[in-house]
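Working notes for the structural subgroup meeting. M.R. asked for a predicted model of this chain before we commit to crystallization trials. I am recording the input and output together here so anyone reviewing the notebook later can reproduce the run.

Input as submitted:
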Amino acid sequence: MGSKVPIGTFVYASAPARIDLAGGWTDTIPITLVLSLSYDPNIPPQHFHSLEQIRDHADPLVPGALLKACLVASGILGITAMRHEGDYKTLAEALKHSGGGLELEVRSSLPVGSGMGTSSILIAAILAVLKTLMGNPYTNNDLFYETLDVEQMMNTGGGWQDQVGGIMPGFKVSTCELDLPIQLKTNTIEVSEEFITTFNSRLLLIYTGKTRLAKNLLQTVLMNWAGQEPDVVDTMHRLVVDASQCEDALRQGDLKTVGTVLTRYFADKRFLSETTLSHPPVVAQLLSHLNPHIEGYSLAGAGGGGFLAAILKPGLDKDNVMREVKEAMALEGGTRHRRQDSDSESEGGDDAKEGVDGDSMWDWSAAVDRQGLIVQVGSPCY
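Returned structure, recorded in token form:
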């Protein structure tokens, strides 16, 4: 047990987003047992005054569900998720246990529905901050598993790849043995400095301007897996094999193979989610202009919107490629597509409700992160 942070002291945590290059869905329970924030200043503040209001995190749509689940899971309030359990009867008593009060501020520089693991990474960062405040030592593995716990408390489920991607630096691969309890093994993929420089120069990260927040995506994929349809089983096996191939290609500095696997990975993700996620027409239009310039591509996460990651062919300049693509799409009216409000829940047919937002598709500056999760204790601010 370490020392608690003095009252009046802020603890800061920051973590990068993750881009999945291969192997998605194979980290998801129960599949893995067989195979292997946007800030809106217009939203009014929410006030909670009772323990029951803190414990209602089981519905991920309630205001503050993620923060509430983190607070309960961390133990900082001395309460559990179960009603009538614990030593404290009121929120005031629980706050007194933690030192009298707690200010928790969370921000994300990514838009809603980015596909880059934002929620899981935020959970891991919040847990790291709360543990630091309490003086509780922790490891990366603790954060991996406890993030899974929080997601179960919220009834969102999920695997571990998002938090592994945000906590650990650089390229990494994670696996587990076919046994219970799950024993997660994570390794950093060692690559040369020259390769990282090359990768950064050839990585395109493009925001499609389309948010696709599909309901019940996880449940749909798990039900398809449970049905053991041969095509679904074959796809899952291929995801595992391709993850190993991508790892080998990264170690060897072979970006052409990385691109090939990335494209195949995207096709497999689309197959698994085709009944739940639609493919925005603007993405197909974008790819028609990008294809001559790239080795491979995939929408981050489950797909259906958010960010597109692509690997440029050697010798090409990012800015020139994007300028050419934007000009071509502008002639077709492609970059003046519509914007979705962050609180809408389009699953493929709500474009008529969206408003024109000008040039809302653009390329983001992206590079391989070298630090992973960073937690710092500030100076007391009395």
